[in-house]
Amino acid sequence: MVAWLAAHARAHRQSLVLLAVLLPVVAVIHGVNFDGWPGRVTDDEGTYAAQAYSMQYWNRIAHYTYWYDHPFGGWLLIAIYTKLTDGFHRAPTAVTAARELMFWLHLVSCVLLYRLGRLLGLRRFFAAFALLAYSLSPLGLWYQRMAFLDNIAVMWLLAAFTAAASPRRSVGAAALAGTFMAFSFWSKETTLLFLPGLYVLLRQHRDPRNWRFVRRNFAGCLIGICAIYILYAAAKNELFEGPGHVSLEWAVRWQLFERAPSGSVLDSGSDTYNVVRSWLDLDPYLVLAGIAAAVPLLALRRLRVVAVLLLVQFGFIFRDGYLPNPYVTAMLPFAALCVAGLLDMALPRRALPLQTGRPLQTGRPAWLGMLWAMVRRGVVGAAVVGAVTAVTLDWTPKIHTALTRDAGAPSRDATRWFLANLRDHGTVVTDDIAWTDLVIAGRRPLPVWFYKLDLDPQVQAQFPNGWRDVDYLMMGKPPDSVLAEVPLVAEALRHSVVLKSFGNGEIEIRRVVPPGCRADLPPERCEHRASPRRRTPSHT
Amino acid sequence: MSPTRLAAAGWGVGLHVTLTALGAGPLGIDQPLAYLIPAALAVLGPRTSGRAGPRDAIRPAPAGPERAHRGNRLPRWVQLACEAAGWYVFAAVGEPGLSGVGGPGLSTWLAAALGAVTAIAAITVLTRRGLSARPAARRRRRVACGLVVAPLAVALAVTAARHHHTVLLAAWTGVSLLMLVVAVVTLTRGQYGWQLPERVHHVDLTDIAPPRHRVSLIVPAREEPVLGRTLTQILAGDYPESLVEIVVMVSHDEVDRATREIAEQIARRHPNVRVVAPEGSRRSKPLSLEDARQHCTGDLVGIVDAESLIAPGLLTYVNTLASRQPDVGIFQGGVQLMNVRGPDRADQATGRDGAGAAGPRAVLRRLDTDASWWRARNCLEYYIWFMSRLRFQARARFIPLGGNTVFIRRDVLDRLGGWDVACLTEDCDLGVRASVAGVRTIVFYHPELTTREETPESLTKLVVQRTRWMMGFLQVLFKGDWRLLPGARQRLMAAEMLAMPLFQAVAGVLLPVSLVLTLFLTAPTGLVIVFWLPMGATVMAVFTEQAAFREFADAYDLDVGRWDSVRLVLSAPLYQLALSVAAVRAAGRLLRGRLEWEKTSHSGAHHGVGRVSLEGVS
Question: Is the domain of B536 the same as that of B476?
């Protein structure tokens, strides 16, 4: 084993040195101020942290009824990490703990991307180029720092691709590729979109002598591990729709067909347009350059899969369906590979004309070949220099912001203020980011995630008097589209006064004042409390 | 009392106390149960670390340095009684109510220490005093041990009955995980031959070394009408006849007269064929081999079954291997069953009397003999075994050899002391002893070198054959030579492999039970998934077997279609059932002590299967 490792290290000496130089750079840029920027801009981060918390401490898949929104492998991984490192009690906030894991996953993804680039025939310089482009793009910095399931899924996806392109062409590598793909599915089901590409890559790298076994082991591991999800639903009798319980069938139908589309990207008023706009504001270069590079790369067999997958993802944006905000995460590694791959293709290999004698074979005069090679070198050199300059001008200020600005402060301060000043037993309705922190701090009765007040019948049953049973609200002001979905919360908001506001209203702590109550009285002494109090959940 | 003994006793006490404290504290096990874990480990765990000795070798009380590393050799019954006594002390001294939440209290530590000291002291005293080996004393000892253990057993049974649901769940989780591990291990080893592309074609037929080694082929035969064909086939091979010596072993008795005459007829024409017909009432294959060994003069001793067709180039290739790899002692060639489909209907109609008769008996016979759904699976089993599994075993340096097409250097064979005549699977036994002796083995498989055989005539015959193999494997397991293997990993592999037939068969019954149980047990969802995992691995195995089946068909240019593949999948559970039946028979026979020789008979169905022509067959 040691000898094997040593032999491998010797064979990949130069790559190891290169990575040893690059990874610290990447680690500094991703690691410094990872909690502060981006701020707490989406509730999803909090949701995954809360679900990981409930897994670790309550042995439940989610903190509310699990309804098959995503397979739970993603937050299982977060829970494993926080369990091993005591993350929820060590890190300042729950989301911070989840973000720590993202940092480590990003480093792994970087190594995998480099390795994949090498396996697809990129020279070391260009593989490293892909790594840097992937890692330093402000777009990547923004999304990869946040606790999104996409980051976990993309890491497994890169691992699957790396295994599929393994030069050993072993049955074991194929089984690993299938397993990693299944893990990717378990983290976020949408990555199944990449499955055809993965299979084609595996096929491209096949060896006829054991292809039959490779194919079957790949499929077997993939299907077997993915099927556990269905088995899970079946074991809980939640596979098909029925009265009184959630079901996988309904969730799949909702995700695929019934989810409200976010509009067309071409319609400047739609959500899709705004999401894409926000991506381009962060970094227009990497993804667009990748898409541009993907088109000529379709002609190159070894990078065709990567190019096609990027273009397919690009095409999906125009599908007019629901476009999730972190959708771009999975495009980034492919875009980086495409850009680096095109440059690698354009730059002639130094030893090639000598080894194969190609100028002689084609009948062209030698000087023409040399001239052509020089032109190609010049173009690549110019492109690299141009890219580095443009990107430096554009990216440096953004990276500077990422390293210095603490946009997470309002959320943190709000939680701290709440815990310090509101020590009564009033019911608080929060977003998911504060939810876990309040639970960890021991807030009782348990806070309520505002979505569930309206959408989960079980939670609603604990509020016999509707919004009047809510004492505090702690959240930013949700957009009107969200408020339309949650009438109880909207009503409570309307009857509330702001106690304290953080970050220019980014997050507000409000006191709900029903008729017959005053903001300066503690909730217990309000009149309407004569009616039965809210029942506390069973898992306190 | 020697310092080593004292140190060992101290170790024992320390382990008992530590594990008890660990169980009662952080692991949160009930206090009385916590002490049972180290006690059970002490009784069930391996008695020695490192190289142990075969059990038979110990009986006559070996003298000298061997005694040193054998450790505690009290019978497990006695040891169990001692540990039970320790538990009584523990339970009497310790007050379960006092063990606090924060960890095991002082009383627990004290009780565990007292209990452990009691147990270890009893064991040490008994070991020093020595136990009488007289049957009467042994019987009395058993009764005494039983009496000592009984209260503990009752207490355990009561506890288990009170928590029967948890006990059942825990037990079944353990069984499921074990089955999963075995299934995954079997799956990966079954694909060893294809794991890397360059591993697939491992035989280079173009590399031919000049003929140098003299090969003695032993052909044990009993009631073999096809013997003539087999011998002709061997003699028609391309290896120089002067370097081949054939020793045909036939019986002296009247039953075997026809076979003997065939052999003698050929021997008259070929001076290098010898017919040996030793006298004796009970003949068996290992006995024949052992008799034949005395008559062999070549550098390589090979075994060819009387009903098999050996490939023309086989001896040349073995000679090449033996010349190129002087450090290898044993060369195992591939054996392949060929009749995927079973005999044609037309052939059957002529050859059977009373085939037209109706009635339940005829239907049964028809089901038994005519059914051929299992034949493809049987063929495939051989293909995977020789192409992949045995090659893995050869690399892992533990190999149960096959009984056919195996070539052993004569000096190696003599050093190993030949075959064990009392063993039902003498081939497996020889492989185990060769592995212990560190003899390197090479396994080669190439369609042009394999020895072709036929599947057993009927399903019943298959079950009979498997029963014999399973009994043989278990015999080798109980014989205990494998305990002398140098590495712990090898020993584990040996134990797993020798017990495998039995386990595999039991798994055939357990798998469906596991699935059904999930319906009746109200198990947590996580455990339901665990219960299903072995089934998943088994389905995966059936799925990947398809790849091997296609490879097999391609290698021999067999005309198999989609229906054969489907049938292969569908036959998997039924075949498993047949193996389970064989396992039950094997276990029953071993218990009853019947180790008689059940011989598989052959009719020659493999001659002319496939489109590959077999030249030289009369």
Answer: yes
Q: Are residues B361 and B380 in the same domain?
A: yes
**Beta-strand pair B335-337/A428-430:** unpaired
Number of separate domains in chain B: 3
For residues B149 and B298, membership in a common domain is answered with no
Q: Does B544 touch chain A (CB under 8 A)?
A: yes
Distance CA A327, CA A183 (A): 18
DSSP state string for B385-406: IIIIIHHHHHHTT-----SSSE
pLDDT, position B600: 55
- How long is chain B? 618
The reply to whether B185 and B248 lie within a common domain is no
Note whether B467 and B559 are same-domain residues: yes
Inform me whether the C-beta atom of residue B185 falls under 8 Å from chain A C-beta atoms.
no
Q: Is the pLDDT of residue A537 over 70?
A: no
CB distance A467 to A495 below 8 Å: yes
Residue B27: is its pLDDT beyond 50? Answer: yes
The answer to whether A102 and A145 are in contact (CB under 8 A) is: yes
Nearest chain B Cα distance for residue A233, angstroms:
9
The three-point CA angle B290-B429-B472 to 5° equals 100
Residues B95 and B131 in one domain: yes
Angle at Cα B318 formed by Cα B317 and Cα B322, nearest 5°? 120
In a domain, B229, yes or no: yes
| pLDDT at residue B584, rounded to an integer | 86
Is B128 part of any domain?
yes
Burial class (CB in 10 A: 0-12, 13-18, 19+), A4: exposed
Q: Is the pLDDT of residue A13 over 70?
A: yes
Find the helix or strand (DSSP H, E) in which B335 lies.
strand B335-337
Digit-coded pLDDT (tens) for A224-270: 999 999 999 988 888 998 888 889 999 888 888 888 888 888 888 88
* Helices within A12-147 (DSSP H only): 13-31, 43-58, 73-85, 87-90, 94-119, 124-136, 138-145
Closest CA to B369 of B51, B605, B162, B609: B605
CB contact, 8 Å: A245 with chain B? no
Tell me the DSSP string of B527-584.
HHHHHHHHHHHHHHHHHHHHHHHHHHHHHTT----HHHHHHHHHHHHHHHHHHHHHHH
Q: Is residue B568 part of a domain?
A: yes
Q: pLDDT tier at B344 (50, 70, 90 boundaries)?
A: low
| Domain of residue B88, residue span | 3-58+66-162
Across the interface, of B532, B539, B547, the residue whose CB is closest to A213 is B547
B425, B472 contact by CB (below 8 A): yes
A412 to chain B, closest Cα gap in Å: 34
Average pLDDT, chain B: 82
Chain centroid to Cα A191, Å, comes to 11
pTM of the model: 0.88
B215 lies in the same domain as B269: yes
Q: Are residues A202 and A177 in contact, defined by beta-carbon separation less than 8 angstroms?
A: yes
Same domain, B493 and B513: yes
Q: Are A92 and A316 in contact (CB under 8 A)?
A: no
- Cβ–Cβ gap A169/B525 under 8 Å: no
Q: Provide the pLDDT for residue A213.
A: 96
Element (H, E) at A492: helix A487-494
Residue B125 touches partner A, C-beta closer than 8 Å = no
What residues contact residue A261 under an 8 Å CB cut-off, 6+ apart? A320, A321, A322
Domain boundary, last residue among B307, B335, B365? B307
